[in-house]
Specification:
The complex is a heterodimer of chains A (290) and B (347).
Chain A: H1 2-32, H2 39-56, H3 61-84, H4 92-114, E1 130-132, E2 135-137, H5 139-161, H6 163-173, H7 175-180, H8 185-207, H9 217-232, H10 237-257, H11 265-277
Antiparallel strand pairs in A: 1-2
Helix pairs in contact in A: 1-5, 1-8, 1-9, 1-10, 2-3, 2-4, 2-8, 2-9, 3-8, 5-6, 5-8, 6-8, 9-10, 9-11, 10-11
Chain B: H1 2-19, H2 23-46, H3 57-72, E1 74-77, E2 83-86, H4 91-113, H5 118-138, H6 140-143, E3 156-159, E4 163-166, H7 170-192, H8 195-205, H9 207-212, H10 217-243, H11 253-266, H12 273-288, H13 294-311, H14 316-344
Antiparallel strand pairs in B: 1-2, 3-4
Helix pairs in contact in B: 2-7, 2-10, 2-11, 2-12, 3-4, 3-5, 3-10, 4-10, 7-10, 8-10, 11-12
Classes of the chains: A mainly alpha (290), B mainly alpha (347).
Chain lengths: 290, 347
Amino acid sequence: MSEFLQHLINMLVLGGTYALLGIGLTLIFGIMNVVNFTHGVLYTFGAYIMFIVVQQLGLNFFLALPVAVVAGWLLGAVIELTLLRPLRGSDIDTTMLVMIGAWIAMQSATLWIWGGVAKSVATPFPEAPLVLGPVSVSWLRLFVLAAAALLIVVTYLLINRTKLGCAMRATFQDQDTASLMGVNVDLIYTSTFAIGSSLAAAAGALLGPVYVIFPQMGDLAAVKAFAIVILGGLGNITGAVIGGFILALAEELGAGYISSGYRDAMGFLIIIAVLIFKPTGLFARSERVG
Amino acid sequence: MRAAITILALAAIASVPLWLRDPYLLNALITTGIFIIAAMSLNLLLGFTGQLSLGHIAFFGIGAYVSALTSLGFDIGLPGGFRLVHEPWPPIAGLALAILVAGLCGYFVGLLSFRVRGAYFVIVTISFAEVVRLVALNWVELTQGPLALTNIPSIAIGLPGLGELTLRTKLQNYYLVLAVAVVAYLLIARLVHSHFGRAMRGLMENETLAVSVGIDVTKTLTLAAVISAAIAGAAGSLYAHYIRIIDPEVFAFINTVTMVIMVISGGKGSLAGPVVGGLIFGLLPVVLRPIMAPEAQWIAYGGVLIVILFVLPRGIVPSLAQRFAKRKRQAATVAPVAFSERAKEPA
């Protein structure tokens, strides 16, 4: 029983960051109909920003997170403006392949700049974990959960309570009509991609110190994000949050009770199972695109 | 004209080992040839049915593992205390089994994943390849996991009157790969120009319309997936017996991406496209190697992919063919105009 409780605690921590990854991707996928293969690179990028700010510049750990969010936002905006805007109106395969090209180039650049050796980030949290009865959780992981929860709430408010969010939702429903109502669709696309990218960078900055940082860390993260998006349904933010926690639970239980070697297979098995049995996602009301 | 060009090109390709003695370049050509076969099989799906499979390396890798395990033998425990022992078979049987098993996998993957389209199809195929990779990595008793299967025997073919010939040298493997590539090319060409090929293209152009004229979507797509997977499996088998060592890294996503780049840059839906694209991207690392660090090569690789998609979105071969056809049409239209003008004169 206590083992199961421990798995649940781990699930909460992991699920929070997975939800961040999933929200970013579901926004981009849902609104822009772009299969964003650079999402994992943005995750890696966020983790390396954390490494630069904390280890190389020697600045405060808590400062690094907002820096990573802003840097992810900027890099996302640059990718959208240079690679996606000129291809507006091309078919989904073309943009997907361009994103794959960008992913290869950016990941190789990361490898070139920082090398393949895994890096770790020192944290200001005490080594000793917080013990609550039969379970224990490290202070760092608690911080990760809190920060992820905060970012999820902020994004939720941004989408549902602001004018920009309203325009984004309108564009998701019907791009042409939104455009006729005076929504600047180009600006919405750039904002969407930038916001999604900043969330991926935030997830990387949060999970980077928990594990280690290396150039290929984003590959699995990207596919997991796809699993979450498919679980939750396209463009469905609440679905992405729930999907993030479901994936984390499946991974924890899979690693704990089946074999730790197959931990990362859980996401893929979930994708295959969901697409076979309920291709609209578990919580989707909206129709599928693509 | 067209046949003459094809025969000349084939003769030129076949003559390469006669004057090229550099083993590094020959090796690059052989692995490129193997990847071109895989890219041709991907083109059958991507170019002629419009389905982008980003898990194609799974069939290649399954072919490689099946072929290697058939010729090496294995001894694994099954649930319930049983053991499954397989004595080594000749590698040529491995090639046949690789084609069979990869084709079967293509059937099941096709059956499951053609229920969805577009981005969803792409993600299902990626997931399939990743699950297969994780199985290859974790089922150590069968695959040796990250320790790799080593000492895979070379392919031996029985020649009438000459006995058994084991293809060990690069020269022999070059011609083996070339022969399989030609067979695969002819098979795909024959298929594409058949009734079945027209059904595939009809599906790609307009699925609803194709269904309305009686094309069985699932059957057509699944058959295309089976043939495509079988050819990829054959390529994987050639790879295993040429490289003679296989580890789970063969399933790396980047290998699928390489195939996709070959098809897209050469021109999807064109028979010669994967060959041209494959030669360019297969040999690009050879050209870049002396002037760039390995990481920079990959940056260039990604950059070239983006540039090609921006500049030649339809691929090299179709773009050139279109230009050539335009010039021909111009040349052809000049004469009749002159003729009709002259014809008008008497009136």
